[in-house]
């Protein structure tokens, strides 16, 4: 098995030319919202039921609500923040908004922070009206709660009458598959967002925005519906342009400036590596050492950071010790990945007898909590290197999660990880021997910068896709893992053959040299030795 170099065409999404429309309608904001529109249509037909809309942080609520109001051909109002009783139920001089014929959107978070007001609203919905002074007031507004899906789940469990008042659930999609829409429809959606920010898109801005959309979804065939995120980017691009027309260059500069505002921690980390405070080789070979890849997420900025992983082995009871876990710096998912790693090793080498080996694996110079199983591929390769005493190429970084049969599974943050290692290699000088191994299932998520694509195209940097752990080890250690015979013995000079021979020696079954005191004395007494 050999790892496959990833084709240049697969390193980033590509889109055909799309012409801009002269105008975009407000209901275009319902693009890709089939589930929401279905729930909304049912809600309009059921006169005495409320609707709960589960949205997400990246949505621009006013545009979404306006699109639904256009669909219903009704006016709408939106209550959020400090909601008062008088707003809902009226006072001495007003009937309150519940007595008007509008679509009434209410922010769930704001309302639920006022338990008494929530109880009054539920009661009014159950009774289809409310008492205002001595007058009975009919409830005529159509009530729509909008908030996080977690609120819906909690209310279903904790609020007895919630199912009777808000029986309809509408889910706001945060992305759409390209097979479900046309690019022309999506570009019209982008144009409508540009209108909301009082700017105009030029034709050169379309491709950068489509590329940015794929970055948000982390998929080449899916586009983001996070309207608020696009509005923020377009506002920043407008300030860069100093004009109402936004071009592709303005989008690029706005993203560049945003990165500069948020990447202080990334630059500090890079400086520590450049100053050799953090030891992280990217050339040569080393036994029991490999370059893994991590992702740092600070909430508003995500970047990739290489990490040096080492393994040591010695005679023992078969335990593969996770030093991160023992020092309380490893999370539960990372511990699970280590257990799977151990299981894989036993599945290959310890089917019929225990392994007389103990090993320690650690992220060197790591002083914060590590979690996730995306390093399990790198850790396993590092462990096999230490057992077989075969060196690993330090210029190739590895990311991937293992299952118990050695299959390599998808991981998160693949683009950030590749870019983080590439940046390190670029600062030191590209040698043409450096690269990254990623799971084959992550190829569809690639969305790399043009500079990395150019380096791969020119043979200065390499990207490999794999589906099994053996593919990675053969590339890293330049030796075939080998196939077992009917007795489960691997060829002697294969990588797994070397591992098997070392394990046999540790078990006392091999031809390891005897270094006991008595043996050394006997050798000294042999003729010809002084």
Itemize the secondary structure elements and their pairings.
Layout lengths: L3 E2 L28 H12 L5 E4 L6 H12 L3 E4 L5 H5 L13 E5 H5 L2 H13 L1 E4 L2 E4 L3 E6 L1 H10 L3 H4 L2 E4 L3 E3 L5 H14 L3 E2 L4 H12 L4 E3 L2 H15 L3 E2 L1 H15 L1 H11 L10 E2 L2 E9 L4 E13 L5 E3 H4 L5 H18 L8 E6 L12 H13 L3 E2 L2 E3 L2 E2 L5 E2 L4 H15 L6 E5 L10 H8 L4 E5 L2 H9 L17 H12 L10 H8 L6
Parallel strand pairs: 2-7, 2-8, 3-4, 4-7, 10-12, 14-19, 16-17, 19-22, 22-23
Antiparallel strand pairs: 1-23, 5-6, 9-11, 13-18, 14-15, 15-17, 20-21
What's the N-to-C terminus distance?
52 Å
The coarse silhouette is: elongated
Task: Tell me the helix content.
Answer: 40-55%
Major beta-sheet overview = 8 strands, mixed
Stretches where pLDDT is under 50 for at least 5 consecutive residues are none
CATH architecture of the largest domain: 2-Layer Sandwich
Offer a quick outline of the entry.
The protein has 530 residues and is of the alpha/beta class.
Describe the structure.
The strands form seven sheets. The protein has an eight-stranded mixed β-sheet with strand order 1-23-22-19-14-15-17-16. A five-stranded parallel β-sheet has the order 3-4-7-2-8, with helices on both faces. The protein has a two-stranded antiparallel sheet with strand order 5-6. The model has no long low-confidence stretch (mean pLDDT 90). It has 530 residues and is an alpha/beta fold. The chain is elongated and about 95 Å long. It has 20 helices and 23 strands.
Keywords summarizing the entry:
530 residues, alpha/beta, Rossmann fold, Helicase, Ruva Protein, domain 3, Ribosomal Protein S5, domain 2, 3 domains, five-stranded parallel beta sheet, 20 helices, ATP-dependent peptidase activity, hydrolase, ATP binding
């Amino acid at each position: 098995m050999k790892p496959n170099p990833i084709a240049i065409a697969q390193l980033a999404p590509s889109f055909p030319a799309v012409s801009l429309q002269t105008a975009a309608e407000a209901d275009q904001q319902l693009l890709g919202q089939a589930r929401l529109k279905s729930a909304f249509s049912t809600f309009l037909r059921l006169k005495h039921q409320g609707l709960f809309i589960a949205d997400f942080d990246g949505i621009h609520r006013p545009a979404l609500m306006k699109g639904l109001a256009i669909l219903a051909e009704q006016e709408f109002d939106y209550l959020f923040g400090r909601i008062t009783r008088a707003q809902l139920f009226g006072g001495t001089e007003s009937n309150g908004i519940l007595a008007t014929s509008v679509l009434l959107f209410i922010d769930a978070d704001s309302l639920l922070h006022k338990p008494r007001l929530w109880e009054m609203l539920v009661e009014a919905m159950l009774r289809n009206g409310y008492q205002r002074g001595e007058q009975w007031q009919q409830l005529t507004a159509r009530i729509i709660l909008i908030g996080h899906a977690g609120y819906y789940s909690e209310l279903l469990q904790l609020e007895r009458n919630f199912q009777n008042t808000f029986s309809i659930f509408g889910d706001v999609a945060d992305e759409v598959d390209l097979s479900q829409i046309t690019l022309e429809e999506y570009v019209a959606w982008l144009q409508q967002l540009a209108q909301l920010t009082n700017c105009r898109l030029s034709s050169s801005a379309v491709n950068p925005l489509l590329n940015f959309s794929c970055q948000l979804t982390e998929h080449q065939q899916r586009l983001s519906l996070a309207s608020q995120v696009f509005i923020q980017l377009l506002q920043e691009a407008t300030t860069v342009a100093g004009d109402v027309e936004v071009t592709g260059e303005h989008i690029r500069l706005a993203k560049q400036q945003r990165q500069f505002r948020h990447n202080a921690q990334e630059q500090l980390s890079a400086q520590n590596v450049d100053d050799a405070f953090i030891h992280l080789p990217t050339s040569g070979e080393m036994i029991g050492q490999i370059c893994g890849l991590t992702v740092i997420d600070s909430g508003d900025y995500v970047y990739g950071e290489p990490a040096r992983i080492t393994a040591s082995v010695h005679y023992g009871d078969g335990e593969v010790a996770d030093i991160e876990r023992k020092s309380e710096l490893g999370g539960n998912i990372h511990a699970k990945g280590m257990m799977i790693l151990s299981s894989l090793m036993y599945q290959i080498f310890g089917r019929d007898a225990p392994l007389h080996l103990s090993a320690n694996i650690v992220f060197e110079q790591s002083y914060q909590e590590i979690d996730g199983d995306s390093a399990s591929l790198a850790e396993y390769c590092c462990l096999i290197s230490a057992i077989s005493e075969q060196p690993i190429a330090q210029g190739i970084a590895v990311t991937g999660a293992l299952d118990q049969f050695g299959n390599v599974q998808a991981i998160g943050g693949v683009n950030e990880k590749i870019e983080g290692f590439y940046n390190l290699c670029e600062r030191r000088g590209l040698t043409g021997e450096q690269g990254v191994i990623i799971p084959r299932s992550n190829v569809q998520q690639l969305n790399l910068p043009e500079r990395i694509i150019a380096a791969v195209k020119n043979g200065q940097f390499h990207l490999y896709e794999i589906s099994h752990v053996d593919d990675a080890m053969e590339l890293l250690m330049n030796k075939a893992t080998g196939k077992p015979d009917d007795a489960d013995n691997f060829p002697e000079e294969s990588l797994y053959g070397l591992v098997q021979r070392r394990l046999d020696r540790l078990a006392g079954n091999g031809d390891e040299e005897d270094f006991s005191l008595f043996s050394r004395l006997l050798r000294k007494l042999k003729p010809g030795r002084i």
